[in-house]
Every structure is written in C-alpha cells, then in structure tokens.
C-alpha cells in the first residue's frame, strides 16, 4: 500500500513500510549550496500493520502518529560545533548496562536531558562550596624493602608467562637452538636494563668492554646471553594471533599479558582525593601505525597513553591509544569524551573525588554524568563544547591584562556548571562542576617590562601525569631494538619502578620517616636492580684470563708503578716469562715490563 503526502517543501512517499523523504529545493542557488535558512517539514506517518518478507512485524510500525522532522543547517553554525554535537548526541537514547566504580548502574542514574542549541549562561561572582571528600587511605605501619614494592606490582605469573613465551618463540625460530631461559635470568635481564637506565652509556655493549666496564652489569650476565634474551623476548604466542580484519584482532596483542597484569595491580591501589587524566607519550620514531604526534609534549613522537593518576603521579589506570575509540557497550555515548566513562569507571562513587582533565576529555555531558555519581570535575574546555556561551573576545582580555577573568553559570539536568575564562599568557577557558573563580589570590608574576601583582584563579592540584612523565624521563631505559613492542615493554617496566617508588614514598610519609632517610628514585631503582641480580642467584663464574694488562701509554709512563710484596702469588705479565713475578739482582721482570 502506498501513501503520498505533499506540501510546498517536501514530498513523503510511504511504500510498504519504506518511507522516502524528498526535499524540494527548486532552482534557488542559496538552497542548493546550503546557505538558506533552516526549513522544517512535518510528515505524519500513519500506522502500518504490514509484515516484511520474513513474516516479522516491522518495529517501525508499532507506534502511531510518529512525527519526523527534516532540518537543514544554518550558516552560523561552525563545522566544529556540528561535528561535536553529532558525537555527543549519538547513542544515548538507549544505553545498555554499565557499571561504575562502586558497582552501581550508570544508566540508572543518568537520564539524557533534552539538548538545546544553546544553554542559558548567567554571570556569577559567588564562591561554590567545595564538596568534602569522604574517603580514607589505609595507613602503613612499616616500610617494606624496595624490591618488595616492585615484585608486588610485577606478579610471578606475568614473569612465568614471559619465560614460556620467550622459550617458545626461540624454538619456533630454530628448534635446534632452544634458549632455555629461567625466571632468575629474566629478573637479571630486567635488573641490567635498570642499571643501564641509571648509568646511561650510549651503547649496551660498552657495559662489558674493558674501558667502560660496569661490574654490576658484567658480573651478572654475559653480554651474549643478555643479547640473546633481548632478541627472543616475547609475551604472546604468535601462532595463535588473530589476523588483521578478524573481530578478535588486537593491535597490542604482543604486550597484552603484561598490560593486563599491571592494570590488575594498579586498579587495586587505594586512590587519593585529587585525580587527573592526561596523555603520555612513549618516545618512538620507528614506523608503526600507532605512532602519534603531539607538539605540546617534550617527546613529540611516540605511542600515546591515557593515564589516570593522582596529584603525586601515582598511576591507577592507563590505556594505550590504538586508534579511533568506538562507543563503549553499556555506557552513554557522549562524543569525544566517551572513553572517559569507561576509563574512570574504577573511581569509587559517592565519596566526592576531584577529577582534573584537559580539553581533549572535558565536555558538558561528561561533567553532568560524573557529577550525578558524586565525582566532581574541572578541566580546560574547547569553546565549541559550550553552546550559547559568549565571553569577551581574546583581544579584549589582552587589553585588560594578565589576571582578567569572567565567570558564567548554567544548570544542566539538575547539575550546576561554572565556566571561567581568564587571561594568563593567553586566554584559557575552564569548565567545572565544583570549582569557581572566587576567591582570588594575589600572586607575583614576572612581566617582560615590569614585575606586577595580578589576580589569579585559585590553584588546583593537577599535573600528576606530567610529574610522572618527568620521573620516568629521569632514568629512562634507552635500548635500541628492531621490535616495536620492546619500547612499550621497557616503558612499562620503568613505569612499574616509578609506581613502586611512589608507593614507598607514601609509606614513608605514613611512618614519619625523615626526608634525608628516604631513598631517591635512582637509589631506589639501583636497590631493586641489585636485589633482582643477587637474590637467590649464584654469582657468574669468570672464565678465561683473570685480568688484562694496562694499555701501552699507561704501561710505559714510568709513574706510580712500584712492586708490592703480597702473599698471594700471581702470574708474571712480562712476555716470554712464566711463573711468578721475579725481582732479583740478575733478573727484574717488573723493570723490564715497564720499559719499551
């Protein structure tokens, strides 16, 4: 059965439950090129009891009197606003089941509000009450040994998986040359990597050479054995890896066991009140599709990692960016901020955590959803994510000078949001569900022309991820490799050491340890490496000559080479002489050795 509805702007044809809308544009060039104002036409679709070819009732015909709206785009809407609005509004009408940090259902407490083109923003200068944090942290009664913190994060099962997969990979390459690596050797391999990050020699083989030999490295493992372990180091079975295009294909398949093991440990750490989410770059300039470029980071090229940490840099969650982020099952799709809901789902709700993030994540929808769960957010925000908000222009702020700010408030779905724009070195816009511009504090800032006192927006405790980056960069493992995933493995090991050190520092504060008695990061990392090298392991037996003679320049400089009588006999270094060193009236091997 066919129904045809015609008006001056639109023709609607319904043929056996298939509805076709045709917009009549005529020959008006303004309409043809999309410059005309918005045209709307309402078409009433009558109920249809017809069945499809399979005999199933069409779900589109269940409701009567459905009204459809045809709407064009107005020329004042910017392209960025349209794209962002499309991302934010898609997929929130019928969300599935999803869980938050305390196990409650997100869909139960989130009700999508009717989005309007503009929000109603009002000028505000009042101070918002800061919600009181209701959580507590367990107090440490003693401080453990550094290696215990590290081993508490890198589990035995993870190391055992490395052993099995490394040996398997070696056999897959050459069945006649099995590697037969053990748990002790894997730990010693990691320890040598930590030593290399501390000493920082430009080449790995220099640690075994005579001129640049490092005893704690060379005495632990031979150079060829260490290079063999590095060559065959593996975490997953290549023979069962899903191919590209398979639904089960995962770009991080080669490092998934390590990531999963570390995430389980990091998620169990009790959280501080102030949390932050930011991006981290793992330096890498090789060829790989996951490599990203971020000009605002100290290391611009590399793998991007999203990190959830506290203000001191302690990590609770992380996620390596592998490409476009799809909508999360069971969670509302809020556009570019959608991955934040699953990423922050481990945060306990209803105890007033404070969450800080940058403009990549911040949006009105995100803060409304988190505020419903008593997770209060603040972060820089992009202007096209604040519909209807009109601040003064950047030039006007620049004329007012550093410290000038404006504040607006709006009510969205029962949640009060504050937007603040202030001028520092450049204009910055913030959005928050708990913070406000007042009270302001007077601070001294250096100006190119003069030193002046300006008003500054109240400080917040963010920057934990940047602090974490700086700690990792202090003693980063810089080992070249042809395998792309090695860079991620070494980064995760360095991250684990820094995480262990931050936990150690937290326990030292709880136990009131004096700051001068607290190990620095380098001392902590060296202590971990030392224990991994020697704990439950036999020392490396030296083979070949016990020592080498000095080079020619030192041998013949005639300075400081005096014979010393010792009980322990040694072999004579003089060529063509056998036995012990001879210093007699008729024969002086010592004197002849130091003469050309």
TrEMBL record:
Protein name: PiggyBac transposable element-derived protein domain-containing protein
Biased composition regions of type Acidic residues, renumbered to the chain: 48-66, 73-90
TM segment ranges: none
Lineage top rank: taxon: Eukaryota
Annotated PiggyBac transposable element-derived protein domain residues: 146-501
InterPro entries according to UniProt: PGBD
Region listing for Disordered, in residue ranges: 45-107
Species of the source: Astyanax mexicanus
Upper classification of the organism: Eukaryota, Metazoa, Chordata, Craniata, Vertebrata
